């Protein structure tokens, strides 16, 4: 009996940090639903075309302007092209533009924010540059960039690839400023924390300090900026396409589908409804997803 009492009680294994993040994330019902909706949309636009028999560019004049049916669940357009196939193809372009432009803006914003917050001698120059970009009127600037560089890029890479590179670059280099300001503020606060001072006292290099101690602690605002960046890029691309300055007419995007449907809005209002609903659902789901990720990744909020 004495031997049984003196035996050490086995301790429970330590919980994984990612398990804590997941437990916090799934308590946010809106974020969970938003994540599911976003994943469903991404799978539908990237896998759906492999399963759907119609080509989005196939023209069948005999089937033009058809109402929704079993053969064409979303109907056909003025040239007889299947609207469901065009919606999926347009979603591929819009989501790809959103994710790629977000990654570019996130890289630039995080880099400038960390450098400005960590290195005092760079702070003033980088923040004044950020203020300069914030003062620029973004939509006119985007329009000027598209008009100036569209033809050279189209000649170098082709009409689809060239306009994709142009729009992603234009959105990315005009969207990094909020991320930079948020990251800089967090780095300024982290730089004076005890664990950073302790790491500096033992001779930790600046590069290792940033990668091991600073960046992991600013992941929460970076992830929120990432999700908001996807939504902003999709809306911006849709606005450019709606103005007729985006992808070529035969290359569908959600914004281009809205532009093409304006002339037929009174006779066929569903042509405006479907791309508008897709844009709204994607942006809303991404915003909810970012809200949940912010709460789950912030150690000060996690566990409440």
TrEMBL record:
Localization, UniProt: Cell membrane
Transmembrane segments: 31-52, 97-119, 131-149, 161-183, 214-235, 272-290
Keywords, in A-Z order: Cell membrane, Membrane, Transmembrane, Transmembrane helix, Transport
Principal location: membrane
Record bears the keyword Signal: no
Recorded topology in the membrane: Multi-pass membrane protein
Annotated ABC transmembrane type-1 domain residues: 91-290
Pfam families: BPD_transp_1, OppC_N
Superkingdom, taxonomy of origin: Bacteria
InterPro entries named among the record's database cross-references: BP-dependent_transpt_permease, MetI-like, MetI-like_sf, OppC_N
Entry-linked PROSITE patterns: ABC_TM1 (PS50928)
Family: Belongs to the binding-protein-dependent transport system permease family.
Protein name: ABC transporter permease
Organism: Seohaeicola saemankumensis
